[in-house]
Amino acid sequence: MQRGTNLGRLGDFNQAVIFESIRRAVDGVSRVELAGSTGLSPQTISNVVRRLLDEGLVREDRTIVSGPGKPRTVLELEAGRMVAVGIHLDPGVITVVMLNLRGEIMHSRRLDIPAVEVPEKTIETMARTVDEIISMAGVPRSNVLGVGVVVPGPLDPVRGVMTNPPLLDGWKDVDMVEPLHRMLKLDVLIEKDTIAASIAEQWKSNEAERDNFVTMYIGAGIGAGMVLNGEIHRGISGNAGEVGHYSTGVVAHDCDICGRNDCLHAALAFSKFAQLARERGLDLTVPADGSVAERAVGIAELVRLAKSGNEAAVEILRDRMGLVGQVAGQLANTLDVGLIIFGGPLWAEVGELCLEDVSSIINERFISKNVHAVEVRSSSLGHEVGAIGGACVVMDANLSPKAAALLLR
Ligand SMILES: [Zn+2]
């Protein structure tokens, strides 16, 4: 819990701290409880709550009686008062979601983009979809906090563009923020997918877990998001967490991004899965150098084989995800966290088969295991985690009491 301050000109910060406490309280919270949890004076609480009530962000229509004295009025979040939109551009699919203030999904859409390699058309389709979702939700435009666009890294934080997007031909250095802002007349932020996934998990987490954990995003790219002492760690350019290019100690083939041949990204390339399958006598219908859509089909085939009991398929998947576990274990040693959450499109397919193995590998590798274990679990946010993260980034930028500013533009 972030504590407030009664000194100085931190009205906005205090408002954010109080609003965050009300937002987190599923069953509502009284002014007295707020004073206790935030450390702010009753007068400050009262002033800020008045403002929140005036702005319609909070309502008070219930009282609770506990012990002697007069009943307490319960403050509750007006969850639908503001919304945020997230767009996740992944090489395989584009997902758009709208979230309310509690982080609940109000609308969700998956877009099949036939020509994703034509950015102008794709950006127009994104804008049109956002417009449709806003009108479908019946939300006034002034109640939309903004749009968070989530893309594979690495990013150039000054220009807000992808500098080397894997599997997204034609998207290098493309400005998405300006055209979306122009078409939608809304604030637009851009965030790396792995970091967005962390922010989504933080929004959804409970108090005990919120402050220190790692997310591992396993999709077209592989990356980690790190929440340390309650703050997302972005690094100086918003590119922290590039664990996809850690050495696994196992030679795969030349990585198309870092140029080395033993990184995790190379180990999880579809061509590697296809090669291992061929060596084990499994016939995937998809060529090793297939298109993005074909690769997804190829992985799905392998997963289907594994789930139907094909041992070779199970071994291939566990072997590859074991390498992910090795890297995550090293990360756990570096950061001393107690929780690692796995998600992303590839993990959504293989997580069920590999979670237990990966968890064992991480905990074997974890040096401080005599002090505490590392809990390893799959994200509950499914394939929408990136888009949810995009919307949460917008919420975070507008509402959360964070020490560091995060706006890239
Ligand atoms: Zn690499």
TrEMBL record:
The protein's name: ROK family transcriptional regulator
UniProt record similarity statement: Belongs to the ROK (NagC/XylR) family.
Record InterPro entries: ATPase_NBD, ROK, ROK_cs, WH-like_DNA-bd_sf, WH_DNA-bd_sf
Coiled-coil zones: none
Tree of life domain: Bacteria
Signal peptide: none
Segments crossing the lipid bilayer: none
